[in-house]
Design brief:
8 strands
Length: 236
């Protein structure tokens, strides 16, 4: 692996690879992710024209958002470094008939191969799982066409996020496998905004994303103290 492809934690990859076989089970370990997917897609679709757009899904996992973007009319390339998840994503694509180009490649490596190739990039629930999230943001900026948009989601580093996303979701309600998240890796919006500025991107919006486990649904909200989404644009 080159330096450009080394921004990952093998323990994190192994952890998510173990969940691969039930990734598309709406009542399985990724139950919450299934609930988060519709508002995430809506957030992107309200801000970017997806019809025939070249879209990159970074950290695609088993392809939940990738397929949703493709169904909305985008030409989707989806990348991840977890091989079992990519196998599941490709198999589900064959079963669903939704066309997505899946690749096992680091975003930093892809940025070397294909600068300014994409109209929009999504990177959802990934930044808190890599050693150098700022490097991911820089790579995404390189991959965007002028005027292109980057969509991100992550967890805020607040007591509320610790209580809900770790204690509540992993230990009390057992919505997620224990150890899914590490509080030290959560990202404040101000930190994300700084990385975006350093990468030459202009932050356009930050919105909260609330998950309601009692009815297994999620919605966009004003509060950003737990989950949040962000949109940034590369200057034309």
């Amino acid at each position: 692996m080159s330096a450009a492809s080394g921004n990952f934690s093998q323990a994190e990859l192994d952890k998510f690879d173990e969940l691969a076989q039930r990734w598309w089970d709406p009542q399985g370990p990724q139950k919450a992710l299934h609930a988060l997917n519709p508002p995430r897609l809506a957030y992107v679709a309200e801000r970017a024209s997806l019809r025939d757009a070249a879209v990159l899904d970074v950290g695609c996992g088993g392809g939940l958002l990738s397929e949703a973007l493709a169904r909305a009319g985008a030409r989707v390339t989806a990348i991840d470094l977890a091989p079992n998840l990519l196998k599941v994503a490709r198999l589900h694509g064959l079963e669903s008939g939704v066309k997505v180009a899946y690749r096992e490649v680091a975003v930093e490596r892809l940025a070397e191969e294909a600068p300014a190739a994409f109209d929009a990039i999504t990177c959802m629930e990934m930044l808190e799982h890599v050693p150098d999230p700022a490097a991911v943001v820089r790579a995404c900026a390189t991959l965007l066409k002028p005027g292109g948009q980057l969509f991100l989601s992550t967890l805020n580093r607040t007591p509320a996020a610790f209580a809900l996303a770790i204690v509540g979701a992993e230990y009390v309600a057992r919505l997620l496998p224990r150890g899914t998240h590490q509080y030290r890796d959560f990202i404040r919006p101000s930190e994300l905004a700084g990385w975006l500025r350093e990468a030459g991107l202009a932050l356009e919006d930050v919105s909260g994303l609330a998950y309601e486990p009692w009815r297994n649904s999620a919605r966009l909200v004003a509060r950003t103290d737990v989950n949040y989404l962000a949109c940034a644009r590369k200057p034309a």
